[in-house]
Amino acid sequence: MDTVADGPQQDGGERPGTGEWLGVRPGLLTMRRLLLALWLGPVVATAAVLPALLGAPRWSLLGLLPAGIVCWAWWVLGRNWRSWRYLERADDLLIRRGILWRQLTVVPYGRMQLVEVTSGPLERRFGLSRLQLHTAAAATDAAIPGLDPAEAERLRDRLTELGEARSAGL
């Protein structure tokens, strides 16, 4: 977890807000890596074994290409998981993510129209929930995947309460 203070970052950019950036649960990384293995594992096995079964063992070396892609994707998933952070401030919620294309989403509490918590079957298996924020502008909807269900519900209740309080003055 990152503790953030106002002021310049090492890369020269400004850090918004103060406080502690919170990350998502490790179960999100485990779930995504499991899906990677389930989808690409058979491709790697087929590319490595099928040529040998057909009498062309040298062609089995082509299985190294998909294996390399799986290794690279495994590493990228870890970096992507580490990039997900969120920070609650007095007037808004910040969501930070991305490796190459970093994205910082600022959701003012007064602009929120709907806050929902979802959890599919696989997410429930890993003890995860997803918080989805819908704002007045459809293009600025934001989500935080990989939350503990209790944390997602706490955030939903808090954000709904703050959203109602902030929009009441409009």
UniProtKB/TrEMBL annotation:
Pfam families: bPH_2 (PF03703)
Domain YdbS-like PH: 81-159
Transmembrane domains' residue ranges: 34-53, 59-77
Keyword ATP-binding among record annotations: no
Top-level lineage group: Bacteria
Record keywords: Membrane, Transmembrane, Transmembrane helix
Protein name per UniProt: PH domain-containing protein
Organism: Streptomyces sodiiphilus
